[in-house]
Amino acid sequence: MDYLTTVVAIHLLGVILWIGVLTVFSVLLYENIREKNKRIKCPSTITASRSLPAVLFTGSTGFYFLQQWEIWNRIEAMEFWWVHSMLVAWILLLVVVFFIEPFWNQNIFRN
Q: Residue ranges per domain, the chain?
């Protein structure tokens, strides 16, 4: 197995972890909203440790693809809109999980 195949496998694993973490977080957040009277553990404490590797693996291997295959020009071309959508989704998840969510949860889920 060559080096790029290993990077693709790591990228796919990161995407699978990313989808799984988002699914778990969504279910837990829904349970928190639905069961306001019951004390349910804060979703960020459960998903934060799992989302860090997913975001870092997916982002770093994605940028590695752009660099290794010399396809940075696809970011400039609008016909490769899916590259833009992946980049926007990754940046949004990065900002929400690591910057907005910790501050939001400190106010919402106080003991």
A: 3-108
50 alpha-carbon distance from chain centroid: 10
Q: What's the CA gap between 39 and 35, in Å, rounded?
A: 8
Rounded CA-CA distance 27/6 in Å is 32
SS3 70: coil
Tens-digit pLDDT profile for residues 21-73: 777 777 777 776 777 656 655 656 656 667 777 888 888 998 998 888 888 88
CB of 43 closer than 8 Å to CB of 32: yes
DSSP for 20-45 reads: HHHHHHHHHHHHHHH-SSS----HHH
Classify residue 109 by its DSSP letter. S
Instruction: Find the helix packing angle between 43-68 and 3-34, rounded to 10°.
Output: 150
- Structure-block tokens of residue 52: 């860090």
What predicted TM-score, i.e. pTM, was given to this entire model? 0.70
